[in-house]
Amino acid sequence: RREPLALINLKKKNEETGEEELASRLNRYKAKATRHIFLIRHSQYNVDGWADKDRTLTPLGREQAELTGQRLASLGLKFDQIVYSSMTRATETTEIISKHLPGVKKISTDLLREGAPIEPDPPVSHWKPEAVQYYEDGARIEAAFRNFIHRADVKQEEDSYEIFVCHANVIRYIVCRALQFPPEGWLRMSLNNGSITHLVIRPNGRVALRTLGDTGFMPPDKITRT
User: Fold this and answer.
1) SS3 (DSSP) at 7
2) pLDDT, tens only, 68-96
């Protein structure tokens, strides 16, 4: 709902000035800035935890988050905000990363929680959630995509740089949707813990993938994919 033509009432078009009037009105609704979206997968965590509160970061996971925070800080960008999943492992990853980005506001959301976005195609044998999960999680994760992945607001004058700390399933689904690829293929991608995925959204709505699951900034012995 950010395509300029969708934001004006064509019934009010001035019949005398015709296309000139339409072009003038369209210009008022055109985005001017580029959005840079950095999707961060949470660090390694205790997979044996029964409840979410028990699935805390491992010592290695905390090291990974430090490395990710250092990498983001080294880019020298003026980050606007960090939006993060309310799940424990994403929250703890955010707290560590944010130490390297002082002053950047943090926003927690349930929309980015881990889940089953859509039944994968082809199917896999090692992961088969109950069918109801796709209905419960899919709508929420799609809502996350629609809420966060879009062109800049028309009022935004400068390019923005935003960080989203969440989960592998969510990131993979968002990448497929943003690139207009079949979302059923999300499970064909693999993301390391603490990895950085960089999407660019131009003012005209075009999306480019700069990096997918980058962990080149981590020593090989620190890289995991739990």
Assistant:
1) helix
2) 999 999 999 999 999 999 999 999 999 99
Q: Which residue has the tokens 């900034």?
A: 217
**Residue environment code for 148-182, b if the CB has 16+ CB neighbours within 10 A, otherwise e:** bbbbbebebeebbbbbbbbbbbbbbbbbbbbeeee
**By three-state DSSP, how is residue 60 classified?**
helix
How far from chain centre, in Å, is Cα 179? 12
Q: Which domains does the chain have, with CATH numbers?
A: 1-30 (no CATH), 33-222 (3.40.50.1240)
**Prediction pTM value:** 0.92
| 127 token code pair | 């992961």
Q: Which residues contact 224 (CB under 8 A, 6 or more apart)?
A: 44, 60, 64, 192, 193
Q: Cα separation of 56 and 70, whole Å?
A: 21
Residue 12 has pLDDT above 90, yes or no: no
What single letter denotes the amino acid at residue 143? A
- Are 167 and 110 in contact by the 8 Å Cβ rule? The answer is no
How far is C-alpha 130 from the chain's CA centre?
25
Q: From the centroid of its chain, how far is CA 198?
A: 9
Q: What pLDDT, on a 0 to 100 scale, did the predictor assign at position 17?
A: 54
The two structure tokens encoding residue 225: 């994919």
Give the amino acid at 9.
Answer: N
